[in-house]
Write a structure and sequence with these properties.
Layout lengths: L5 H26 L18 E3 L2 E3 L18 H5 L9 E3 L12 H13 L4 E7 L6 H21 L7 E7 L9 H4 L1 E7 L2
Parallel strand pairs: 4-5
Antiparallel strand pairs: 1-2, 3-6, 4-6
Helix pairs in contact: 3-4
Length: 192
């Protein structure tokens, strides 16, 4: 009969968290002024963000355009205006759920309308989870979340051929230690 050793489980979680923090520290130290790759998720800093004249300005201007590679320069202002529903490009989920909360309906309707009016634009839906659960379960949950967003966008008028889904599970947290910020789908507009 096998016995459960909670000390091993706690130790493994501690080592995993320590490895993630160490890796982030190393990445931060090496970041310098290198360009941010478009396919890497980047969360805009919560501190250091200011509003002036209705536009959001952050410490690093490269962060504002994250996920807008496939959007024309002329249209980007709509996606950066905090008063425009298109500026909502992260959909958050409750714990262990892929059900879209009603507060995101207007944003998804706006994205679907934009996609239906711009048939050449592609959108990648990246599903994420918090660290609870096995890796396999979290990848599947991230995929279900991305597919839920995809279904709403298609039912709202966007072309299914414009959309793709990808799940990272728990592998790319937006914030270490903040589970609610990690349960999300990011809307990433890509080049064709």
């Amino acid at each position: 009969m096998t016995t459960f050793n909670s000390n091993k489980l706690i130790g493994a979680r501690y080592l995993r968290a320590l490895a993630m923090v160490s890796g982030l520290a190393l990445l931060t130290a090496c970041a310098g002024n290198e360009p941010v790759p478009e396919d890497e998720p980047v969360q805009a800093p919560t501190s250091g963000t200011t509003q002036s004249s209705g536009n959001v300005e952050s410490v690093d201007p490269r962060l504002n355009d994250r996920g807008l590679l496939g959007i024309s320069k002329e249209d980007r202002a709509m996606f950066l205006d905090p008063n425009n529903p298109l500026s909502t490009r992260v959909i958050y989920f409750d714990y262990d759920s892929s059900r879209i909360q009603s507060q995101f309906n207007s944003a998804l309707q706006a994205h679907a309308k934009y996609l239906s009016n711009h048939g050449n634009v592609k959108l990648r839906l990246e599903g994420h989870t918090d660290e609870r659960g096995t890796r396999e379960y979290n990848v599947a949950l991230g995929e279900r979340r991305a597919e839920s967003v995809q279904k709403v966008l298609v039912l709202s008028g966007s072309g299914g051929n414009q959309l793709s889904t990808l799940s990272f599970g728990e592998e790319r947290p937006a914030e270490i230690g903040d589970a609610s910020a990690n349960r999300r789908v990011e809307l990433i507009y890509t080049q064709q």
